[in-house]
Each structure stands twice: as C-alpha cells, then as structure tokens.
Amino acid sequence: MRPALAILTLLALLALAGAAAAAPGFRVETLAPGVHAAIRTDPPGLMVDANCLFIVTDEDVVVVDAPEASAELIAALKGITDKPVSHLVNTHWHDDHVIGNATWRKAWPSIRFIAHPSLRDYLPGTGAKNRQGMIEGAPQAAAQMKKQLDAGKTLAGEPISDEERASYASDIALVAHYMNVVPGTPDVLPDLPTGGDLILQRGTRRIEIRRVGRGHTEADLVVWLPQERILASGDLVVWPVPLVGGDQSHVVDWPAALDALLALKPALIVPGHGPVQHDTVYVTQLRDLFADITRQMRDLRARGLDLDAARTAIDLADWHRRFAGDSPVRAALFRMYVAAPGLVSAWNADTQ
Ligand SMILES: [Zn+2]
C-alpha cells in the first residue's frame, strides 16, 4: 500500500511540476473560421499533455501553448494553412505547455514567445529541477503501473476496472512519449514577457492576452478572442478535476480569476486539459469548489484546528460526488489534486 501511494504521489507531483507527455493523441476541432483547437483524446489519468490552439490571421498564425506533441501539432497545422507562425503564447510554466517551444522555433525561427515574466526565472530554476525529477522518476512509475496492469491490480492493490486499465495504459504511453521528447530539449524563454493586457491586432483578428489573477500558478495567462468570444484558459480550467499544487497553486485567489473569466461571457472555452466547453457550468462549479474550500478551511482554523485536523474535518463529499461520480479514476484524481494539495494551498494562504 505504501509504495503504491508513494508512486501515486510522485506521479502527481511530477505531473504538476511539469510532467506530461503525449502520443499524438489529439483531434483538431474548428471553433470559428480560422480558429482551430487541438484537443487531447487521452482518457483522464495522472499523465497529461496539453491542448493547443491555432489562430489563423490574415497573414500569419498565433498559437496558444507548446505541448510535448508539438512536432505532431506542427504537422497538423501545416495541413490547415501554409501561413507562418508569428507568435506563441505559453499560458504558464509547466512543461506540457512550454516544452514544445524549441520545436516551434525550429520550424519558424523568427517566432516570438509570449508569457508571464516569471517564466524567465522559473524555467531555469524550479522548472529544471522538477523536470529532472520527472526524467528520473517517471520511467520507474510507469514500470510499476505496467506491473500492476499485468497483475490486474490498481496501484493501491485493488482489482482493476476497465476505466483504470485504460487510464494506466495511457499514462504509460505518455511517459514513453515524454522520455522521447523532453530530455535534452532546451528551454526557450519568453522574449515578449507580459503581465497581461497585451493585444495582438493581426489584420482583422484581435487577440487579447490577459492576466485575470493567479490560480493554477503565479504565471497564469489566458487568451481571449473578443470577436469570436473564444477563450483559451490554460490550466485555470482543467477537466475533469482541477490540477492543484500545494505550493504552486493559489486556491484562495482562484475563484476571483474564474469570476473574471465568467465576466467575459465566453461562448467557447478551450481548457488546458479536457474537451471544449460550450457553456460556463463547469467553470462555475470550479469557482464554487475553490470558494467552498477556502471558506471551510478558514472556519476550521478559526475553531482552533491545525492543518491535519482540518484535513480530516473538512466536508468534501458533495464535491467528490460532483467531480468524480462513480468513476474510480476521477475519484483518485480528486483525492490527489483537490483533497490533498488543494487544502494545503488554502491553508497556507492564511499562514503566510
Ligand atoms: Zn499546468
């Protein structure tokens, strides 16, 4: 039980730290004329690669995020248009959103990279350390999952369901792709760093790069197309369970960031992970989750509980039901990202 949990925790930490990998498992959806989303098709799991957005303007292309599958994404884009890519926006610093930068630069050497200024410090520092941890730890974790698959057991030693089987198989494939792509890939830092409110007017196309506040990380940026009412949210919105890091995320501030997204009244939302959202029901649910965690943790602290006691006392049963339903994979993700680091993040905000 213990080693299994340790592996789960390692994978979770690494995934947040910037893990992610990808077989070319995405489909391209046209959201509006010239606006194409490459949406990952992997089942939910511990390993993820990010979605990507192509915005074709009168003369060029602006891309949102640079996942591990960037070589495959570039091939897909070339099947849509022969216009060059002029700008790429990294919505934050995790590897599944930045590691492809070098590949895009190789394809279009004059491309400009737009991101929050903090990436210039994060990527060579914490990011490099986390990436090294992933490179060292992920193959072992994948091997353990393979062993469990062969034995017909989950990492916790329970009989494995079909859903868990598909999820583990996907994680293993994503680790393999990660190990093919990531080691040795150089960082490409933003050369157009912005704290938000950058507007790219490319012919008739208006592209707004905004910072709506911090949530998933300090570096969260979103891309908003006001004419088409299409929003690329980065990992401020992740389906089916939000990705929360105890030290990197800001649960207490997250609801305000999501409120700012809701105020845009988007018609379509391209989340960092998960399918295109055609309404704001899920974003509202995320906002209410983080607001409730913040409220409950503050109440428990006011009653004199310490973090461990508060973790036991908090009531997340209704949220667990809403996010996980009867899915064991989603339940595991909820426990790993919400019920563990999510609470720590909320608690620490009031301790600092
Ligand atoms: Zn992320």
Q: Could you please describe the fold and organization of this structure?
A:
With 352 residues, the protein is of the alpha/beta class. The chain is 44% helix and 18% strand. The chain contains twelve helices and twelve strands. A seven-stranded mixed β-sheet has the order 1-2-3-4-5-6-7, covered by helices on one side. A five-stranded mixed β-sheet has the order 8-9-10-11-12, covered by helices on one side. The longest helix has 33 residues, at 119-151. It is globular and about 60 Å long. Residues 1-6 and 13-23 have low confidence and may be disordered. Bound molecules: zinc ion. Zinc ion (ZN) is lined by residues 92, 94, 216, 235, 243.
Key descriptive features of the protein:
352 residues; alpha/beta; seven-stranded mixed beta sheet; five-stranded mixed beta sheet; 12 strands; 18% strand; binds zinc ion
State the helical fraction. 40-55%
User: Helix- and strand-based class?
Assistant: alpha/beta
Distinct helical segment count: 12
Distance between the termini: 34 Å
Strand order of the largest sheet: 1-2-3-4-5-6-7
SSE run: HEEEEHEHHEHHEEEEEHEHHHHH
Mean pLDDT: 93
Strand content: 15-25%
The beta-strand count equals 12
Q: Identify every distinct bound molecule in the structure, by name, code or SMILES.
A: zinc ion
Largest sheet: 7 strands, mixed
Shape descriptor reads globular
Unreliable spans are: 1-6, 13-23
The oligomeric state of the chains shown is single chain
Radius of gyration computed on alpha carbons = 20 Å
